[in-house]
């Protein structure tokens, strides 16, 4: 390696890859993942990217092969790695909530709590975490690694499973019943502890975190501009959510002011009719690319 | 049904479906139409959606199976239904104009006005409306229901047709000549009369109408910001269309003001060169998501 | 031709076609290129479009068959045409740089400068330019027209090639070594000299050039709004690039001002962390459609 | 029309179109249906094709606009047309069985036989047939034309439906219960009665029928060749289905014969192991294009 | 090069490429053209392939860079190359006929024979051939190289064109009129004269030609097997085309024989009904992969 | 379970799934794998299918959850399962050879034999087999489970890998060097030992094996028919491979015989030219669907 400062960054390969690259683009970095290469290029000479499976990310960050990376909290726990949590990243309010790892059994099975599974076989992709969970409760079970399609295994190939779920619909479709939630998980931006102690790397990592969060925040929010006569200003301000105070600027006409504010996108359909009723005119919604409050 | 207030809303199935769902998304409601289901979900617990063919929408709204729905004015007339017209919706200035239902005959046929068709066979999808039209003129014709491909039927399978057209290009391609326009039609947001008399449903329907129109208005318009010295302000204002007066705000430099206005997108290419010639600087166009004036 | 003023405009057929049509749309003109037709329609009754190969564009503009057109500087030179250069157009900062025409030979060949190629065979699509280049240096070579795949010809089918390249990666993949750059080229908006001397056509051409450049400029830039207390104003202004002075407007609170400015998109990821550190709040980035400074 | 003999043939537009064109190709006629044209070309100068909706086919064949056509038996009945049934065509044993038109009601409805529906509303695409069916049983019902998605209408938009089904899976998915089968239907090759009385047209129609059936027969059958010693011949013949007696030819070795036969494809997996057990050798299965026994 | 015998074979790059590779596969050679490489692999260690534009093929075969290759007769003539014609290849009877190079002018132009074009401009991709053609007739014309879309150039950009056509439909669509056919052309398998004088290369080239033609012949033909009683044998034989005499073999039953023959696929639909009428039974058509008579 | 005899059959989920289903279809069984279901239907009431990952197949067959299944020999070894090997299946001669599991290191690494890796980290998907391999050689190594992309890990994330390869091209592309082949593997049809001891299940399994092999054999072979005069018979027979003796049948003309034989497809291109040279005529190649010799 040369003297040049470089941050080695792990991008999750697989289901999160495209969403991650899209998030970086919105945040200001273009990553080019061409075909089969696992070393995508990025338009920042201070960063080197590598595609790594989410399951292995924490291990390689802990060992220092990577300075930082994105992975799920679940896989940090599975690997019991000692890393720095820089920030959590909920990619998009609309499409991405926390996932849950749950213990599920066949709908018509006699199992209703973890203790009922003593002596049974449990299939899961999260073997170590599951073993520790049951060991912590002193329940003897056999935990088998599942290469996929875990939710179709009970009752023929396993008695119960520990599986990830967002809405539970796949479990229901396979006629499984959740009897316990073992863990909630969301995407984490993690760093190697030594790397994060290095001043240059810490600043680079923190800037990335700031911009990624700025891009995420912009997705669920919009800009709103409107004009209002001073007589109606209080009524209009009363309609707006208290969180973000709007920017009020004086217009040439001394009786009128312009408001410019940021609003949760999901509130717009309720707020605009009320703004209009309260006397606002020239109401305009415009899209945002980044929001850093 | 529980006490919970719910608006039953009909979404047109078929050619308008995707455009309607896209319009609702721009207006602030996400509709998820998954695969084969005719009951798409919507991210508003106060609304229940059903996909219904545009041809049948007015019938079911009139009968009260649906509180409101979107359909063409043509099909309201065909079914002679008694419904409330909430608002017309021209989805997008660029791609969507009023359609016309026209009476068309082969280019080289001897028919030149409706009366010439006495005794002839007319194929159409709009059977009842067509029958009433000719009955009103006391012209005896045979009207046959056409299951599709109406414009290829003359002269072999029919003497004339009553068919919908936007630009007439499909009629010309089939060597047909328009001899009369029977009706113009555009998309209507209609409501059941009893539903619209209910205060809660009326407010919900009106909010939907306001936001749908706000989203439609934003499609053909853009935001424009510019700076101008006070000496040039009148010249610059003279270039802008009179319709929407711009927001003028004072800059720190007392000799300069900032203008912020909304403009028809189609005018921008003519207006910007004139603004620059009139002394405006820092001219910036930005996209809008909703416009409620 | 009628008295109606019409500008005959050549659109480059082929690899640049889609990007050109997209650029015109961003600039305010919609071009509809349907299937096989070489005469796309445009939503401006004062313009008639024709799709013409970039290689032939300059020839037809020079002869007056077209009033104006877009083509590469390289093909203007190849054809040695006498046309007016209105403006160069770098479609997008991100994806489009100047291309180079280079003289390349096999990696392991004994040729290291143009003079080494005396008596050799050179394959190229740019036959006339290449002949003049070597004639100007008094180096006798055989120049053969290449119908394509020029870079795979050495050493079996040619001794050297003159080929266009952006990044050199295709040349490297074919194990070729560049020994000289013969020309740099970018897209030019060119006009027939007589047409450009006509007042009406000149104004039309110049408006097109202004709007095309306005659309190009907007692609690499974004809008930035923020609030800042007057105490921090100088620090915040110090962070912003000097080029474009921001619009500063007074807020209702006399201690605060709002800043609105335009920024190179590639700088945002560095500037926002510094703005926040300097005391800015409510930092919002929004997209731009056109920028005419 | 000239003196040239031409058969006007209706090809069903819509869901059967591609399968029909594929069937004709296997039978020896190539039909080219290009884009939007309703008059596909065919490589037989004695035939002119027209794409016609299956629902309208029988009407136009009866009226003599077409000499012959393919449509479902159901639509012949719906239109009560008087046409010649040339042959039924079950396109492929694997994918195409007779369809049924059934009377279906919501699973949890109190309706269990047609009589229970007195006074109720029935939605169907097959309005006339349904009206006659209930009139024949003296059960008063309201029959409404359904533009599509009939199976989602009960119970909200209709009390019962008359709908087409192959396997019943779509009805089950919509929680409907079949209470009566009104009709079975399969594809028919029909002819106008006058056309079929014309000697030239009859021969042309019969040749088409022969070859279409020859192509259909070939789809579910395969050729089988094998060698067998005369000592084992009876045992081997005993394994083969009795229907088609095999061609037995003498080999050079007087102790051996070769068998060549046609077999239902679905039987092959059972027959080959038995043939081998019975002493056959060199068993070879080969595909067939047409079978006319 | 080692001592190993290798045939350097040119495969036409571009519109013929996929059809050529498919033809070689049917003939028994698999060619793998991966992505961007111009040197496809082939499953025959005695052959090395290179993708070469059809326009350049004859030049490189003549110069000996390639031993053999496939290209159109037109480009052999354009380049005036001296090569061995091994065989012509009409890829498939159905989709591939001889193409024609024609002289075409605008429908409403005053030009009706080549002589009318004296002094005019002619655009063509086949510059040298066209120049020689007009020189041979002592008609002075200006011939310009056309980079493509030649048929849209008249009358605006050229007075006439020399262009390739199969059916003339593209010319008609551009309102052009053919006034002379200059040349007919089909695909040729050509060889370098020295290579063809080498015994090993000649045998390799001839085997390729035999198998390519065997695969082409199989495409338009089918196998036909049937049984017939000896009493009907003459009648049945009378129905079969005289060209290929069938194989007649004796069945076990002395009164019956089996016929096995090859037939033009396009005749089958006429022959089978006649065979059945003449007393044949068990008529079976089966597909062929190669036919070498 | 009812008394009905049923064979529980595991189909490999993933990369082999489509090829397996295609193979079963060629063998005579249609498997319908719809969307997300892991229990595809099959047109044989005596079989129940389940999709199971190849990695887990042997485990579930050994435990008796499945009677039989298809998986790689590698995964049988990895799991050290005790199952019956019914037959190996090389899906297709053309596209499917035995795969190898190899030990690979970076090209420029100092490792040249397994022993050199003492103390090093080895990444692999085949953890248990690899551990046993090195334990058997008394070489202490750290074996880490790799979730994928194993070949990009050296040298950054591992010192060596044990990875599967067909042609080695992926290893070369990642600049890795093979230092040892640990195992060869191909697809196996395996059965539970108890199931295979059951007479009914054994017969069912053996029939499946016979037909699967019959379908595989047909893929690489073709049928060949030809006529030959008795004078040339020996010469023609001399050209044919000795393996399969052809069926010789007497033609009506006593001087001629017909030959019908099976041939390796890859030999055809060499054999046909020789057959023709030896006096054969009417040489026809036809495709085969199954071959059971």
TrEMBL record, chains A, B, C, D, E, F:
Pfam families: HisG, HisG_C
Chief subcellular location: cytoplasm
GO molecular function: ATP binding; ATP phosphoribosyltransferase activity; magnesium ion binding
Coiled coil: none
Residue span(s) of domain ATP phosphoribosyltransferase catalytic: 53-213
Subcellular location: Cytoplasm
Catalytic activity: 1-(5-phospho-beta-D-ribosyl)-ATP + diphosphate = 5-phospho-alpha-D-ribose 1-diphosphate + ATP
Pathway recorded for this protein: Amino-acid biosynthesis; L-histidine biosynthesis; L-histidine from 5-phospho-alpha-D-ribose 1-diphosphate: step 1/9
Cofactor: Mg(2+)
Superkingdom of the organism of origin: Bacteria
Modulation of this protein's activity: Feedback inhibited by histidine.
Keyword line: Amino-acid biosynthesis, ATP-binding, Cytoplasm, Glycosyltransferase, Histidine biosynthesis, Magnesium, Metal-binding, Nucleotide-binding, Transferase
GO CC terms, sorted: cytoplasm
Chain ranges of the Histidine biosynthesis HisG C-terminal domain: 218-290
UniProt key word Transport: no
An individual GO BP term: L-histidine biosynthetic process
Isomerase in keyword set: no
EC number of this enzyme: 2.4.2.17
Functional summary from the UniProt entry: Catalyzes the condensation of ATP and 5-phosphoribose 1-diphosphate to form N'-(5'-phosphoribosyl)-ATP (PR-ATP). Has a crucial role in the pathway because the rate of histidine biosynthesis seems to be controlled primarily by regulation of HisG enzymatic activity.
NCBIfam families referenced in this protein's UniProt entry, alphabetically: hisG (TIGR00070), HisG_C-term (TIGR03455)
HAMAP family: HisG_Long
Membership in a protein family: Belongs to the ATP phosphoribosyltransferase family. Long subfamily.
Protein's UniProt name: ATP phosphoribosyltransferase
């Amino acid at each position: 390696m040369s003297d040049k400062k470089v941050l080695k960054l792990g991008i999750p390969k697989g289901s999160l890859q495209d969403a991650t690259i899209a998030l970086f683009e919105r945040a200001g970095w273009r990553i080019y993942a061409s075909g089969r290469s696992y070393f995508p290029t990025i338009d920042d000479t201070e960063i080197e990217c590598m595609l790594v499976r989410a399951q292995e990310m924490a291990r390689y960050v802990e060992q220092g092969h990577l300075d930082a990376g994105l992975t799920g909290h679940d896989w940090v726990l599975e690997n019991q790695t000692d890393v720095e949590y820089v920030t959590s990243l909920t990619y998009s309010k609309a499409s991405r909530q926390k996932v849950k790892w749950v213990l599920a059994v066949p709908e018509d099975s006699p199992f209703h709590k973890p203790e009922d599974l003593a002596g049974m076989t449990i299939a899961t992709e999260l073997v170590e975490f599951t073993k520790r969970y049951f060991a912590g409760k002193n329940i003897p079970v056999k935990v088998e690694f599942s290469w996929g399609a875990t939710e179709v295994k009970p009752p023929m190939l396993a008695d119960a499973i520990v599986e990830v779920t967002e809405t539970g619909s796949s479990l229901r479709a396979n006629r499984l019943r959740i009897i316990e939630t073992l863990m909630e998980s969301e995407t984490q931006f993690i760093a190697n502890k030594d790397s994060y102690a290095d001043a240059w790397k810490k600043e680079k990592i923190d800037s990335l975190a700031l911009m990624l969060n700025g891009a995420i925040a912009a997705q669920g929010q919009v800009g709103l501009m409107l004009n209002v006569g001073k007589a109606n200003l209080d009524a209009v301000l009363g309609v707006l959510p208290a969180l973000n105070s709007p920017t009020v600027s004086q217009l040439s006409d001394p009786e009128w002011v312009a408001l410019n504010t940021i609003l949760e996108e999901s509130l717009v359909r309720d707020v605009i009719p009320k703004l209009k009723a309260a006397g606002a005119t020239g109401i305009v919604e415009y899209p945002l690319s980044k929001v850093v409050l």
